[in-house]
Specification:
0% strand, 136 residues, globular, mainly alpha, single chain
Length: 136
């Protein structure tokens, strides 16, 4: 029987811990209301970022309360584009759709109150640019 060296054991342990930690790190990174790049472009203050993160967390809690257990299971362990696609595939009732739209509108209005007029104008320009890129 072949025994592993200490170096092989440590290397294996490091790789295993990296594999386990990666999804948690990705989710933690996506917890911010804006990506770090967008937050930097908007020149958000730490307080603004904290307030926007709280708005996003509140919206997420409200959204998750709308979904059934089956719908939540379909969304589990998805992030980014994969999560958006999973959301599109949910069989939402008209009531759920209306509630989601309301949460979206309330969250956007709350976020708009946190931003300065200059940041709002800049964000609107970013959104328009993104929309133009999608249409190409």
């Amino acid at each position: 029987m072949k025994f592993l060296t200490m170096k092989q054991c440590l290397g294996g342990a490091l790789m295993l811990s990296a594999l386990i930690a990666t999804p948690a790190i990705l989710k933690a990174g996506s917890a911010n209301a804006f990506s770090p790049e967008r937050a930097e472009e908007l020149n958000l203050t730490p307080q603004q970022q904290t307030e926007l993160d709280a708005i996003k967390d509140n919206a997420r809690t409200q959204v998750e309360a709308i979904f059934t257990d089956d719908q939540l299971a379909e969304l589990a362990d998805t992030t980014g584009r994969e999560r958006r696609q999973a959301m599109r595939n949910l069989n939402l009732s008209e009531d759920q759709r209306a509630q989601l739209q309301s949460i979206r509108e309330q969250s956007r209005a709350a976020a708009d109150e946190v931003l300065t007029a200059e940041q709002l104008a800049q964000l609107q320009e970013m959104r328009e640019d993104r929309g133009n890129r999608r249409q190409r």
